[in-house]
Design brief:
A: 404 residues; 5-stranded antiparallel beta sheet; 14 helices; 34% helix; B: 471 residues; alpha+beta; 16 helices
Chain lengths: 404, 471
């Protein structure tokens, strides 16, 4: 089987764009949207099951498949428009490469996703992985203006556009953001950028967890809204206590005002980091979970944080935990059995908190699914939407999991 | 349409809430777009969520198309119903069901008027950020359908950035719950997919919205410019300096003169080629710092005059002219076509030159008022709807403006929606495959295409879309 796959792919894409992955599965490395579409049309014709990969550094590239399709050949930054603060990039562009390119024009993509610095922009969008800055700059969906995606049967769609405001047609881009590849392979992204802030200051405080969440509430009541206000378990920052990190970005006067207000409001011993230490600290925070087997996200709002942190600690472990102390959202990284995740998902659902399995080995993804629990009536809609974008079920994506 | 159906709907809502006399229907034959009209078969106004569900169930069983309508302030002909369709008017579903100041969430029925939510949130120090110019009349259900914007969306985002969950009544009368109270969803982002679907996926019966804390300080600056190009360059200069103002609105001379000649006169400098309103908000320190920087940038970009409003009364006066600009322009001719399109911010000066040339070519008068910060144009064409030749020239000018915006890398609509008005331009904006995907997605929610039929997607331009086993 795989010999035939290799031969046909080589004939289609050229020998250099086809190899074998470490497990011996044929791997296609198309270098254009059209080549991705041709690959998927061939897969559709041959009935191959296709696993989607970026650089293989975030979601493990370990699903059982006939073909691995990676976006790492789609590595061009197509256009950057500083005057419009918009860039068009191919999905396989590594985040650190994009960051450096944008910094040349004093711009940035206001996302600090967990994972390796070189993870692909496409993987960040497909898995909707935002970091602490989501508090100030919004979730991944807010940064994506449009895309090009290829469906399971090799069709190319181009929803959205390259302007920051656009309501023409249905917003199919939203389905692709956080769709884990179930609705298509992202090949190109139109991104909303920001000018680099003139000031960027990070404060840290150590204290018992309950005290930190209480201080976060005081800050919210006082109208202080840092761009990030992240609660970190001791394991994340290799400290003996929980940490709260406040990151203020903007004009020098605005940041100075925010800092004064935080110091004034919060009954904590804050420590201001210099630029070099702040950079190292946030690097540590975003990469701390990379060695862990899996990560899950919990959609909890700030007032429910204490209860959910207890719940996660009890049913998984305290391990590596990141939580948005102002706008909510929580991420856990570690190792667990499928039943533990299912139990936590059920208990969280009882509290109206969704749990998304963000990354895990294939066996875990297959067992519990990225989403697993849907609200009433949603499961059939999701199934039919998958059917629209992948009519013959080419993509190996575990959306739902299986009940034991 | 059968009298039996009218009677059956009357049994659900009470006879006084079903309208079918020609004189009654005339009030519903257009929305805020004056160039399109269509009379529905009948109009029904449910008074509760339960009545709405029963209505949609009856229409489903009878295979009758329907169109949901809020206040009818839409500007794309999105809420027009054909003679075979029932218009379901949602203005009686106007309860704010829940307002949670701690979680900063509100749950509302679709007929709640936009500004009423901010009024209700005010005692808690909160507000609802998207502020369409029609916010004193338009409904939140309509805002969800169109993904409405407004001047303050530059910093705070449009409707889709503020809707966190929805209860949706599908055209087959089944209820589904999309999204959660947080930014994490139960599954894929179906809320994001639904917002802006222009009433073609179903009716939002309950809308959960994010509320924002009121900024501690606000400052509004008004600058006069000798040219639109200079004003546009100032806009780009402010954004490039890393400042995201709450709003950045521009009016050209025709618009300013219309405002100043009206009862909404705001004291704008009528001799300026362009007037720019910039509002910064946030903490007092940030506002002071940013306002100083904005003022310096405005002057550096050749502003001939800069005024600053610090009190709420002064700010209200500066904003009055902008908010009422459409009304002011409406009084200088019998009809006004409020257009909506987007270009990359850097293309603004060229596209405005092009719009002026198009208007001159078709012997039409155009005034521009627009969201300069995000490149969202509103060229407003004054005309007389009784003059068929003039109406034809308005259509031709709109066509040319849309194509000019697309050629500049823009979009045919930034906040008004496609509706009936922009349907013809969709094949210019999207290829047949993408349109086909949109049609296929619509079929998931509405397999028999009965919800707001004939809008957004020109079926003839869609490539056929294969479906697998579950359809």
């Amino acid at each position: 089987m795989s010999g035939d796959v290799l031969d046909r792919l080589r004939a289609l894409l050229g020998p250099a764009a086809v190899s074998r992955d470490p497990d011996g599965i044929p791997r296609a490395v198309p270098d254009s949207t059209e080549a991705v579409a041709a690959t998927l049309r061939l897969a559709d014709e041959c009935g191959w099951r296709v696993r989607l990969e970026g650089h293989g550094s975030w979601v493990p590239p370990d699903a059982s498949a006939d073909l691995a399709l990676t976006t790492r050949g789609l590595d061009r930054i197509v256009t950057v428009h500083p005057a419009d603060l918009v860039a068009t990039v191919e999905a396989g562009v590594p985040m650190d490469v994009l960051r450096r390119r944008l910094a040349d024009d004093r711009m940035w993509l206001a996302l600090d996703p967990p994972g390796r610095p070189d993870r692909s922009v496409g993987s960040i969008v497909a898995t909707a992985t935002a970091g602490a800055l989501r508090a100030g700059f919004g979730p991944v969906r807010d940064h994506v203006l449009g895309c090009t995606a290829v469906t399971g049967d090799g069709r190319i769609i181009r929803p959205g556009g390259t302007v920051v405001k656009n309501v023409a047609g249905y917003d199919l881009t939203k389905l692709q953001v956080g769709g884990f590849g179930a609705f298509g392979v992202l090949t190109t992204l139109h991104l909303r950028l920001r000018a680099l802030p003139a000031a960027d200051v990070t404060l840290l405080a150590r204290a018992p967890r309950d005290h930190l969440t209480s201080v976060a509430r005081d800050l919210a009541d006082a109208g202080v809204q840092p761009q990030a206000l992240e609660l970190l378990s001791p394991a994340v920052s290799a400290e003996s206590e929980w940490i709260m990190a406040a990151r203020c970005m903007g004009s020098p006067a605005g940041v100075a005002g925010d800092l004064a207000r935080i110091l004034d409001t919060a009954d904590l011993a804050w420590n201001e980091l210099d630029a070099e230490r702040a950079h190292a600290f946030w690097h540590l925070v975003t990469h701390a979970g990379h060695g862990a087997a899996m990560t899950v996200r919990l959609g909890v709002l700030a007032p429910g944080l204490d209860e959910l942190l207890d719940l996660v600690s009890q049913h998984l472990d305290e391990g590596l935990l990141w939580a948005g102390a102002s706008q909510g959202g929580m991420r856990w990284a570690g190792d667990a059995a499928p039943d533990q995740v299912r139990t936590l998902r059920r208990l969280a659902a009882e509290r109206e908190v969704p749990l998304t399995l963000e990354r895990a080995p294939w066996a875990m993804r297959q067992a519990v699914g990225h989403f697993g629990a849907y609200r009433e009536g949603v499961g059939p809609l999701v199934a039919q939407l998958r059917d629209v974008f992948d009519p013959t079920g080419r993509f190996v994506v575990a959306m739902d999991g299986v009940e034991p | 349409m059968s009298a039996a159906l009218a009677a059956e709907l009357g049994r659900i809502v009470g006879p006084r809430w079903v309208r079918f006399q020609p004189a009654e229907l005339a009030a519903y034959e257009a929305d805020g777009l004056p160039t399109h009209a269509s009379r529905p078969a009948l109009v029904v106004l449910p008074g509760s969520r339960h009545e709405l569900i029963e209505i949609i169930r009856v229409l489903h069983l009878a295979s009758v198309p329907f169109v949901a309508r809020g206040a009818g302030t839409g500007l794309s002909g999105g809420a027009l119903a054909g003679s075979d369709a029932v218009l379901v008017v949602l203005t009686r579903l106007n309860r704010i069901l829940h307002l949670d100041p701690v979680r900063r969430r509100a749950v509302v029925e679709p007929g709640v008027v936009n500004a009423r939510l901010s009024d209700a949130a005010l005692p808690h120090g909160l507000y609802y950020a998207p502020d369409p110019s029609s916010q004193s009349a338009c409904t939140l259900g309509g805002n969800v359908a169109e993904n409405a914007g407004g001047p303050h969306c530059l910093k705070y985002g449009v409707t889709t950035n503020h809707v966190v969950a929805l209860e949706v009544l599908l055209p087959n009368a089944e209820l589904v719950r999309l999204g959660s109270g947080s930014s994490e969803s139960w599954g894929p982002d179906l809320v994001g997919l639904f917002v802006g679907s222009e009433g073609m996926f179903g009716i939002a019966t309950e809308i959960t919205l994010r509320l924002e804390p009121l900024p501690a300080a606000v400052r509004t600056l008004l600058a006069a410019f000798p040219s639109i190009r200079a004003a546009s360059e100032a806009v780009s200069g402010i954004i490039a300096a890393g400042i995201v103002p709450a709003a950045m609105e521009m009016m050209d001379q025709a618009c300013v003169r219309a405002v100043e000649a009206s009862i909404y006169a705001a004291g704008y400098p009528a001799d300026a080629a362009a007037v720019l309103l910039v509002e910064v908000d946030g903490t007092p320190e940030a506002v002071r710092g940013e306002a100083d920087l904005v003022e310096a940038l405005l002057k550096r970009h050749r502003a001939t005059e800069v005024r600053t409003a610090t009190t709420s009364a002064e700010r209200a006066r500066l904003w009055q002219g902008r908010k009422k600009a459409f009304g002011a322009m409406g009084r200088i001719s019998p009809d006004l076509a409020v257009q909506d399109a987007v270009v990359p911010r850097s293309a603004l000066p060229d596209i405005l030159d092009r719009v002026a040339a198009i208007a001159a070519h078709y012997r039409l008068s155009v005034a521009n008022v627009f969201h300069a910060g995000d490149g969202n144009l509103h060229p407003n064409i004054s005309f007389d709807g009784r003059d068929p030749d003039m109406v034809a020239r308005v259509h031709a000018a709109n066509h040319d403006i849309m194509h000019a915006c697309l050629a500049a890398g823009g979009s045919i609509t930034g906040e008004h929606g496609v509706g009936s008005d922009k349907l013809a331009y969709m094949p210019d904006a999207f290829d047949a495959e993408t349109l086909g995907a949109m049609r296929a997605v619509r079929q998931v929610f509405d397999p028999t295409a009965r919800a707001n039929p004939g809008k957004v997607i020109p079926y003839h331009a869609c490539r056929e879309w294969r479906r697998g086993g579950t359809a």
